[in-house]
Amino acid sequence: MDSIEQISGVRVKRQSLVNTAGLLPGIFTIFTLIPNFTYGGEALSVVDDIGRTVRLERPATRIVSLAPHVTENLFAAGIGHRVIGAVNYSDYPDEARRIPSVGGYDNFDIETILTLQPDLVVAWKEGNQFQQVERLMKLGLTVFVNEPNRLEDVASDIIRFGILGGREDEARTAAQEYIAGLSRLRNEYSGLEKVTVFYQVWPNPLITVTDRQIIGNVIRLCGGSNIFAGLGTPTPQVGKEAVLTENPDTIIASGMNEARPDWLDEWKQWSFLKATQYDNLFFIDPDIIQRHTTRILMGSRQLCEILEQARKNIGSVEQTDPRHRLIAE
Fold this sequence. Notes:
This protein is α/β, with parallel strands linked by helices. The chain folds into two domains: 8-183, Rossmann fold; 192-328, Rossmann fold. 34% of the residues lie in helices and 21% in strands. The protein contains ten helices and 16 strands. It has helices spanning 68-76, 110-116, 130-138, 151-165, 168-189, 214-221, 240-246, 274-277, 296-320, 324-328; strands spanning 8-17, 28-38, 44-47, 53-56, 63-65, 83-86, 103-104, 107-108, 120-124, 143-146, 195-200, 202-203, 206-207, 224-226, 250-253, 281-283. It has a four-stranded parallel sheet, with helices on both faces. The chain has a four-stranded parallel sheet with strand order 14-11-15-16. The protein has a two-stranded antiparallel ribbon with strand order 1-2. The longest helix has 25 residues, at 296-320. The relative contact order is 0.11.
């Protein structure tokens, strides 16, 4: 545990961040700090992802993380060494594996958290049981609720965590590097020919993503067209019949670990499916695509390369038999 260092005092304001290289379209809002005087007890204040103002009298030094992606982003913000408790599967970077467990993200141990006496708890709206999160609030703990659904939200998370930990400069540098990486990918891939995509998270129940989930953002970034982009929830259940009716050019699956799941190849039983005919059944490691962290740049690069290979496969088949797309449709 580090001691609280003398840092520049700050006040917090919202500021529009524009990519100065002109690579990101538009402007999105993130939090920044304005150093202006020696820290003398002025509260640090940010707004979390459900609109609550979170205040600390001094930089957090005892943090509990209730999601693996939160743990990773706390390290990216330069305050991972202050995390004293984290949920299971908080395994990146390697140092995170040594953090004491407070249970699973969907059923954490409130008594263990209370025993740790944290000065900041970072919760996950979509993944945690929110009744448990509300109980932590009622017990008087300072809770930041995280819910990143856009690629740009990763940068905002890192900066706000840096604010609460008094490491704004380090956090802002990490966030800017991440945004620059997104810019390069967007420039390289977003304008390419559209490829229809079904992204399969799990087979039973059959779960996918929409444009309200961060992977949906990645698909769009890479020039893909998500066949279930417009459904109402971020990770809806769908039926096989709906997938077959939409008949995507490409199916991409993740799963539970770095091994390609056997159930991905079950789609081959439907010979009329375009993804089957084009040999466009692909796997991507969930750790680099399903976590809302800077590593999603690696997953995005891989997904973009997958869709580029899918385009080549489609072109190769149609060059051999120009009637193929018509038959598939």
